[in-house]
Backbone:
């Protein structure tokens, strides 16, 4: 009996992975059935692409049940549950996202209360910041200096309490009532004074310095008194710092000024929120 040519009796290579598969019922490399349909197990020819009984594409191999994909759903359920919880108000309440959403508020145990008897105000600063009342110095100056890094206190004190040109190593603040000379606006109106000063500052910056207003001049209330505040990003060849200036007014008194400056990384890392907390802690009295 004469047999047909070998090439007509069985495929020489697996149609899926091209492994030698001349005399095997299954591919030895990818386990693809070569003689039977993977769906209905009907006999398939060596060169068939689709099963003649059920039309299944033979190169797909054994047909899996629909439930085999449930493992993917089971893996996604914990991930989805974690994402939903992380974005829920409960996560914010428990503080899980506090480091991503906002700097956590300081408690009373994290701040220390201060008072300047000569300047007539009280305030609170973080425990790791140092306050120096220059109104009690041998040569008095009308402000209190607050600094995160001790070396910044001396440098900032020589600037007469104005920190816009300061390049501190950490956060530094001045709080007090320095002399104010403004002829174009009412010197007792904190919003008008600050808007006038910022317009002059931004239009005529020093050479090589750019002022970018991050938080425009706006009205605030501090210690029950009206005020105004602005935040500016100072960009120069020496680096980038944030600068804040605020005025608080009271009838019959000169404006109270608060200034703050910090390197951009420190300000964005939480010192900006701490400086704002110091500003809001101000209380005025005789």
Residues:
């Amino acid at each position: 009996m004469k047999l047909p040519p070998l090439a007509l009796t069985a495929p020489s290579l697996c149609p899926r992975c091209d492994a030698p598969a001349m005399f095997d019922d299954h591919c030895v490399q990818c386990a693809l059935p070569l003689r039977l349909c993977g769906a209905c197990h009907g006999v398939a020819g060596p060169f068939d692409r689709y099963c003649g009984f059920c039309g299944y594409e033979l190169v797909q191999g054994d047909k899996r049940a629909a439930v085999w994909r449930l493992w993917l759903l089971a893996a996604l359920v914990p991930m989805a549950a974690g994402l939903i919880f992380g974005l829920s108000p409960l996560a914010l309440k428990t503080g899980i996202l506090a480091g991503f959403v906002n700097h956590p508020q300081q408690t009373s145990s994290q701040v220390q209360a201060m008072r300047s008897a000569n300047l007539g105000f009280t305030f609170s600063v973080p425990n790791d910041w140092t306050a120096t009342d220059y109104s009690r110095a041998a040569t008095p100056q009308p402000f209190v200096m607050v600094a995160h890094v001790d070396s910044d206190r001396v440098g900032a004190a020589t600037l007469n309490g104005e920190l816009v040109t300061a390049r501190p190593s950490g956060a530094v603040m001045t709080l007090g009532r320095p002399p104010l000379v403004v002829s174009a606006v009412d010197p007792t109106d904190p919003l008008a004074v600050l808007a006038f000063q910022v317009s002059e500052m931004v239009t005529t910056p020093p050479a090589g310095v750019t002022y970018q207003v991050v938080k425009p001049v706006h009205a605030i209330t501090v210690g029950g008194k009206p005020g105004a505040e602005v935040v500016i990003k100072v960009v120069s060849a020496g680096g980038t710092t944030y600068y804040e200036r605020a005025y608080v007014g009271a009838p019959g008194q000169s404006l109270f000024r608060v200034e703050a400056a910090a390197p951009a990384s420190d300000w964005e890392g939480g010192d900006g929120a701490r400086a704002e907390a110091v500003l809001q802690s101000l209380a005025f009295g005789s």
Summary: The first strand starts at residue 111 and ends at 116. Residues 70-86 form the longest helix (17 residues).
